[in-house]
Amino acid sequence: MNSLFDIPIPDFGNDDLTGRCRPLNDKIEYEDADYVLCWLQQALRAFDNPVIDAAVAYANVNNLPVLVYHGVRQDYPHASDRLHYFLLGGSRDLQRGCAERGIRCVSYLQTPGNIEKGLVYRLSAQARAVFAEDHPTFVARWQTQSFASKVNRPVFAIDAARLVPTRALPNSLKTTPAFRAANRPLRNGFAAAKRDIDPEVAICDLPFKFKHIDLIDTSDAQLRNLIAECNIDHSLGTCEEFPPSRSVALARMSDFISDYLPKYKWTRNNPAAAGSGSQLSPYLHFGILGPRELYQAIQASDAHSAAKWKFLDEAITWREWFHYQAYHDDEFDRFSSLPKRALNTLFEHASDPRPKLYSLNELIHGATEDAVWNAAQKQWLSTGYMHNNLRMYWGKKLIEWTPDPETAWNTACYINDRLSLDGRDPATYGNMQWCFGKAKPGYSEKPIYGWVAPKSSRAVLKRAGVADWVETMNLKTLPTILVPDRPNHPARL
Question: Residues 20, 167: contact at Cβ < 8 Å?
């Protein structure tokens, strides 16, 4: 995924921003410009955001203002009340923060009565250059690449989702220990970089009229009313457990550090234990919270160094390792991306008899004969979140409950992408790859799984409070959502 364009990176006067930037095309800067365009898709925060800072630093050099744009369409894969609500909540805080920083920010919500075609292209026509996110999977990757190939303006991608930008690391890292050894020494340097660069030019005007939405004073109820107008999946509702708010994300981070970080190492595998997970992954995925903020807060805490190391190894090392792999693999979210040995052994056992096959509708609604699996699935369906330790068991069971390994993979991706607030992300695809054999082989060859190690629920049920948690979760009455006959994994845009 490294740039194919050998053109100079802008001089930001900031080594951190230079290390995060790569050109996506070879277009020439537009001299008679009105602004610099900053197009955001997932990095939905106004503060500690390298994409905005790069746009501001570049605009200051060229004596121009910055226009920050975030649009939410109706036709992105798995568009639903759940995902729209989180996106618009993030956009609301983005607008508020940009106003505080003195930067113009506009948000657009596509509805049947408000369809602006090619809006980001039209906005780019008056821009000297465009700054976007360097995200390695799903819509943010596909759309940015497509946009850069068609627009007649230089487009620069900025790595905002990782503490250590992927471009700062060697291209040949093959193992987690090698990645850890390369990533860790660079963290403090990137954590200390200057952020929130002040704009030097006044807020810009829009080049043309269009129906954008002012979210600064919008309530949660008003957000829901806006979403009700959209032609999206209304059967999958919003999640009260995860308010789409930066203030909530910062408060949860603070509470986790003070109350749970010291014992995280010992509780992290128990889904019934309070604080066994930070539950910050949805906020990191949508960029409402930045990885540098999390890293700095953990390092500044009074927790024991071993507790800090364990949490940061999960939240930074493993997360950024999956991002690194996705950055270098266009097919990271595809079944074909699994190691050959895993593919071979799964295909060798593809015709093995399955103990039971479940429909996609039964799986999504947690209607199997496995109480632990059902509880995990119902947590996902009702809250948009599944405890990380349960995801391992959840993913492996799909291999034996679907007709063949590729259907199992597509089913896992479909459920993850549609239900999960942190789905459609390198970390969740990496998690599923582990379930499907991107790990140490099993101790022996098994039916259906071959040399891919299966996983039992016995260990998790032995943990304190888990049996009661499973029973309580399975007593929940959940909404019925619309489900197709078979899972679909969206094609590239």
Answer: yes
